[in-house]
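=== RUN LOG ===
request id: a7f3
mode: sequence -> structure
chains: 1
length: 147
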Amino acid sequence: MVSLDLLLALQLHHLLTLERNLMDKLTKEQIQKIDQKFPIHDQKFIILIDILAAKIPEHELNCNVYCIDEQCNIIWQVQREDIEKRYVANRLKMSSPVSVASLNLMRKDPLVDIKITNGELVANSFSGFKYKINIESGKSELIGWSK
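=== RESULT ===
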């Protein structure tokens, strides 16, 4: 059974994600801290913001990849909420306890490298997780781990 604390934590994270998606333009500080930038179609760019150099709110630490246009308007910000849902589902399937601490660590695991190969965007997190990110929507899918 999932604890009430866990459900509340997931709801809060979802609300913060919705709030984040209302943002429409990168800040000056975010623009200065762009670490990687790749052009894609229709004068859009995929960027990675260096979270160590930028002051990023804690709820955005693991969402530091964006698709922007030439004026730095945000088209999308990477979405990694499905990882939390998968973690909870897997723990419940194995009849194992769900750890709020583990969920909090996942939320603070920034992406540190991005690459576009054969039209696919792949990102690596600080903890060694590898994600495929949909270039059109920003939705991510966990595809591996290495260290």
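=== NOTES ===
Confidence is low (pLDDT under 50) at residues 17-22.
Residues 4-145 form one domain.
=== END ===
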